[in-house]
Each structure stands twice: as structure tokens, then as C-alpha cells.
Amino acid sequence: MFAKNVHCIVFGALVALAATGQQNDRENVRRQRTMGTRGNWVAKRVMSKDFMDKVGIQGEQATKIKADLDALDKQSAKLDEQIAQAATQQAEIAKKVLTEPGANVDEIMKIIERIGTYRTEQAKLATKRLVVIRDNLTAQQREKASAILNEEQKKGKEERERNTTQNRPATPKGS
Question: Residue 2 phi/psi, 5° resolution?
Fold first, then answer.
């Protein structure tokens, strides 16, 4: 009887773990679609009107940067979709793998590898975005852009630290 209860507990934990992993995959895909892929925040910031005005990006230069970044965004959107499809397949197979003792895991491992390949491609696209910006700005503009981004990052970090300090839960007295 004890072994049967342990088996039920372990099985329940595995199913819960799989469900949590699937939910996290969906949340990651949703977050990436909303925010764009890693590194895209710099490109989005650089393409904002106020940033372009501050740095002096205009005319043909702005048009070229936008066209190059748009092309990378299309590639990124395709990868996002491929990741979402693979994550759905992974979730379906995970149900079988976790409920059938001795089930073959080769198929799910191949999907995991495929998702890893897609994520590597996303990282490459993030770097390509930065290279587009680098290659299309003058040295002066790169210096100005870097200073603005560094200052914004510093302010953001200070804001997060301030919020963390102010929102810290109270500790019991005597602790």
C-alpha cells in the first residue's frame, strides 16, 4: 500500500512539474512576442523618435536602419512561431513520456534540441540587430547613443533597487 501511495505522489509531482514547464514555455513565448527577442529592446529604443532626435539619426540613415531591422524582425517572428509550435509538440509528448513508464524519450529530446537551435538563432539575430545599428551610425552617434543607453540603464537599475528596498516585506520583530 505504501509503495502505491508513493507511486501516486511521484506521478502527481511529475505531472505538476510538466504542467509548470509547459506553462513557463507558453509564458516565455508570449513574453518574447510582446517584447521581441533578446536584445531587441536596444533596437526598439534606437528606433524611437525621441532617441533618434537626441542622437541625430534622420533621413536615409533612419530609413536604412529601419529596413534592416524590419528584415531581422521578420526572421525573428518566424523563429517565435517555430518555437511556439515546437513547445506545443513538446508538451503533447511530455504527457505521454510522464504517464507511460518506459516511454521512449528520443522524440521529445529532438524537439528540445530543435528549440535550442531556434533560441541560438534568436541570439544571433539579437547580435545582428546591434551590428546593424553599429554599422549605420557614425562614431559620434554611437558615442552619444551609448551614453544615452548607459544613463537609461543606470536610472532603471536605481529605480528597481529603490522599488525592491521600498517593497521589501516587513520582518518579524526579534528576527
Answer: -60, -45
Local confidence band at 10 (pLDDT 50, 70, 90 cut-offs): very low
CA 5 – CA 85 distance, rounded (Å): 36
Q: Which three cell numbers stand for residue 6?
A: 508513493
CA angle 84, 89, 92 (to 5 degrees): 125
Question: Could you tell me the CA-to-CA distances from 17 to 13, 91, 114 in Å, in that order?
Answer: 6, 11, 21
Cα-based distances in Å from 3 to 14, 17, 99, 100? 16, 21, 17, 18
Which H or E run includes 124?
helix 106-136
User: Mind listing the pLDDT tens digit for each residue in 111-138?
Assistant: 999 999 999 999 999 999 999 999 999 9
**pLDDT at residue 99 greater than cutoff 50:** yes
CA separation for the pair 120, 63 (Å, rounded): 28
For 46, other C-beta atoms within 10 Å of its C-beta total 25
Whether 25 and 90 have beta carbons less than 8 Å apart is answered as yes
Residues 102, 125: Cα–Cα separation, whole Å = 39
Sign for the CA dihedral angle at 147, 151, 153, 157 comes to positive
